[in-house]
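4.2 Preliminary Data

To establish feasibility before requesting continued support, the project team ran the inverse folding procedure on a target of 483 residues. The structure was first converted into the token representation described in Section 3, and no sequence information of any kind was made available to the design step. The complete token record follows.
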């Protein structure tokens, strides 16, 4: 059972790499996308806020477009002094000579050398942005906007600096929340998947073990059927398979026993009469002649049994060949009936043959067709008691001919009737026979595009109908070997 556990591990591995891998990949992609969206959302919100402040500030400083530098500086200090959001946003004002003249932070340094300020000087729109870490270790976003020009020269610049630490903290908190949700989804998927997988692996392991035991000959093993899902249906199917295998094994054993008996009986008779003849050749010519007749009859019986076995083997391999030709069905049927006249008389059975004047020709293999007739007539006589009656009749119908063999024998039980054409099956085990004759006959008739029907009532006899399509007038003849 080592191989089954390896397969179970393989199933778990495939589930881990496929399902969990896909879920993890989707969650990771979602988290990355969501994190980028959050960062973009917060940073764009800050940018929109700064843009709004820049527009408002530009409107304020437009009044100083023609003012002197002193007036511009006084106006800048007034603007910064009245600025309401000094605690959250630092605003800086530069004159036309790139000098910082006032800042809401209260400490004037060489900020004009910052990246955003230098970049804004080079931009056609006079605006630029930079995100960096300042001298205090704070992460900030700075946006510089040069004010409108007068005589091709800007009157100055305004710069807003926002500390991003609080925003970054909020972004980080949101990303952590998303990460926790992703981990929860993965954990939930793993847990639910593990439960689901366990519900599959456990019955599959049981199925594998049971199938292994069945393969080793334990046909009475059965699986519990829980539910009507695919696993339940599989268990039910395997139980059905085991039941059929058990039935087939029983039939096979009975077949072997029956065939062994069928072979042993004529061999014993042949051996016994051979020894008798050996000691009576010169003393009792009549006994020798009788013994030789018995040996010839039993040899023919053995030959027929071997032929049945060979035909069965060919049928199982799909190699049962037919030499199709135009056949007079009455000729083959009459010969088969004649062959069993003496046998029926010896067993005290009356055989009656109702022969029509003519019947249409059929396309058939004459030898195989006669083989079917012999098998059916032999069964009718074999299962009839002394004083019984066997009726053989041939009739024509619209598009087919029908040969019917009726007997007054022991009949077939209702539960056995549907199985008598199955291989190895014998409804009456007290009568000689291999149990494959009807299976071969049924297959031969099927290959002739015909039907073999059996109707029987236990204790009242059996009727077997052989139905074959006949050759229609002007229908071209066709002769061939059919497998």
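Position-by-position output of the design step:
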């Amino acid at each position: 059972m080592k191989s089954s556990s390896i397969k179970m591990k393989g199933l778990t591995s495939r589930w881990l790499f496929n399902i969990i891998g896909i879920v993890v990949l989707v969650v990771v992609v979602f988290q990355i996308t969501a994190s980028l969206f959050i960062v973009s959302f917060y940073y764009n919100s800050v940018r929109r806020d700064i843009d709004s402040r820049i527009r408002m500030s530009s409107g304020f400083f437009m009044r100083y477009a023609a003012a002197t530098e002193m007036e511009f500086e006084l106006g800048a200090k007034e603007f910064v002094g009245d600025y309401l959001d000094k605690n959250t946003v630092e605003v800086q004002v530069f004159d036309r000579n790139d000098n910082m003249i006032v800042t809401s932070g209260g400490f004037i340094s060489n900020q004009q050398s910052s990246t955003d300020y230098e970049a804004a000087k080079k931009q056609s729109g006079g605006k630029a942005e930079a995100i960096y870490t300042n001298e205090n270790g704070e992460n900030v976003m700075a946006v510089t906007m040069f004010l409108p020009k007068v005589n091709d020269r800007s009157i100055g610049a305004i710069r807003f600096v926002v500390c991003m630490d609080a925003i970054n903290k909020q972004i980080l908190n949101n990303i952590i929340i998303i990460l926790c949700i992703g981990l929860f989804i993965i954990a939930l998927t793993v847990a639910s998947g593990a439960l689901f997988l366990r519900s599959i692996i456990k019955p599959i392991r049981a199925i594998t073990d049971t199938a292994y035991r069945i393969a080793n000959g334990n046909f009475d093993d059965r699986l519990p059927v829980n539910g009507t899902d695919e696993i339940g249906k599989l268990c039910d199917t395997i139980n059905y398979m085991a039941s059929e295998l058990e039935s087939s094994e029983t039939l096979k054993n009975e077949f072997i026993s029956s065939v062994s008996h069928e072979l042993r009986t004529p061999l014993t008779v042949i051996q016994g009469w051979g020894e008798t003849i050996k000691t009576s050749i010169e003393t009792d010519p009549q006994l020798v002649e009788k013994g030789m007749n018995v040996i010839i009859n039993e040899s023919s019986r053995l030959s027929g049994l071997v032929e049945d076995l060979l035909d069965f083997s060919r049928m199982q391999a799909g190699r049962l060949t037919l030499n199709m030709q135009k056949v007079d069905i009455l000729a083959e049927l009459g010969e088969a009936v004649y062959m069993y006249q003496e046998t029926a008389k010896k067993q005290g059975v009356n055989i009656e043959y109702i022969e029509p004047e003519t019947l249409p020709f059929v396309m058939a293999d004459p030898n195989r067709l006669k083989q079917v007739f012999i098998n059916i007539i032999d069964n009718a006589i074999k299962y009839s008691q002394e004083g019984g009656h066997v009726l053989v009749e041939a009739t024509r119908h619209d598009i087919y001919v029908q040969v019917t063999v009726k007997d007054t024998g022991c009949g077939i039980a209702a539960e056995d009737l549907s199985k008598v054409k199955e291989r190895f099956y014998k409804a009456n085990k007290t009568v000689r026979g291999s149990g494959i004759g009807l299976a071969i006959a049924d297959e031969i008739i099927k290959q002739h595009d015909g039907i073999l029907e059996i109707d029987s009532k236990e204790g009242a006899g059996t009727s077997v109908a052989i139905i074959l399509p006949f050759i229609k007038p002007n229908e071209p003849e066709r002769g061939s070997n059919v497998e």
